[in-house]
Amino acid sequence: MTTLPERVAYAKGNKLTHLEFMEMLFSDEVERRNQGALTRRLLAAKVDHDQVLERFDWDAQITLDRDRLKGLISLDWMERKENVIFTGPVGVGKTFLANAMAHAACRRNKNVVVVKAAKMFKVLYAARADNSLDRELLKLISPSLLVIDDFGLERLTPEQAHDFYEIVSERYERGATIITSNRHVSEWVALFDDQIIANSALDRLAHNAHQMIIEGESYRKKKGTIGSKL
Questions:
Q1: Which residues contact 167 (CB under 8 A, 6 or more apart)?
Q2: How many CB atoms are located within 10 Å of the residue 78 CB?
Q3: Cα(73)–Cα(97) distance, rounded to whole angstroms?
Q4: How far apart are alpha carbons 168 and 188 in whole angstroms?
Q5: What pLDDT, on the 0 to 100 scale, is given for residue 52?
Q6: pLDDT value at residue 60
Q7: Rounded CA gap, 111 and 7, in Å?
């Protein structure tokens, strides 16, 4: 235990009883294990460690419903298996907020997966070739929280549309989902060739979803940090 020398010195200096000393060591060990478990969850989820709610710039020159956002930070919607959809132009903070909420969920011992839409569809496409599609879909269906970032950059192929429908329909009222997109939700139907699949998927996704529209100038353009992940 790395804290033992310091704790021994503290116990002697404060004249702790044997029981008090053991309780302190037990508390340290619980904290150490909790931190280790959190680190593993964050790594498994692929959450950006720097994008946390505590670092969100509430004074940023963007337009959004700040009171509603503060309500979402509680993550009560996640417990109710509801969804959150962030839409708006490039660089206004959609990915940051999605990652920050994923980070908060990991700190609450939730199973979380964060993935770019393009990467998700690429993995699922490859999975068809080696008959691992069901396994890859399960990884996306089973988490308490799934974050799909940058959805709708390109029109979906029939296979991608089917996979997206499968994920959304299986997660419906079983898990919470966050989606970020540069396109407004009303534009998503046009991404699908099959309108029946589109309407079925989007109806389930939008049901009880919290839609946050963010507008304003790009953080990256304003700060000149093209590599920033906002």
A1: 137, 140, 141, 146
A2: 23
A3: 9
A4: 14
A5: 78
A6: 78
A7: 33
- Residue whose pair of structure tokens reads 């329909």 in the numeric block: 169
Type of residue found at 40: R
Q: What whole-number distance in Å separates Cα of residue 205 and Cα of residue 173?
A: 10
CB 92 within 8 A of CB 180: no
- pLDDT per residue as tens, the chain (230 positions): 455 666 556 566 666 776 665 665 556 555 555 555 666 767 666 677 777 777 777 777 888 888 888 889 889 999 999 999 999 998 888 999 999 999 889 888 889 999 999 999 999 999 999 999 999 999 999 999 999 999 999 999 999 999 999 999 999 999 999 999 999 999 999 999 999 999 999 999 988 899 999 998 765 555 444 334 44
In the structure encoding, which two tokens stand for residue 159, read together?
Answer: 């296979």
**Residue 134 near residue 182 (C-beta atoms within 8 A):** no
Cβ atoms of 203 and 166 within 8 Å: the answer is: no
Alpha-carbon gap, residue 206 to 101, rounded angstroms: 19
Specify the length of the chain in residues: 230
DSSP 177: E
Least Cα distance to 94 among 172, 151, 164, 175 occurs for 151
Q: Give the bridge partners for 104, in sequence order.
A: none
CB 230 within 8 A of CB 89: no
The residue written with tokens 């998927």 in the block is: 201
Structure tokens at 212: 């946050």
Going from the C-alpha of 63 to that of each of 26, 28, 74, 183, 197, the distances in angstroms are 47, 43, 21, 16, 33
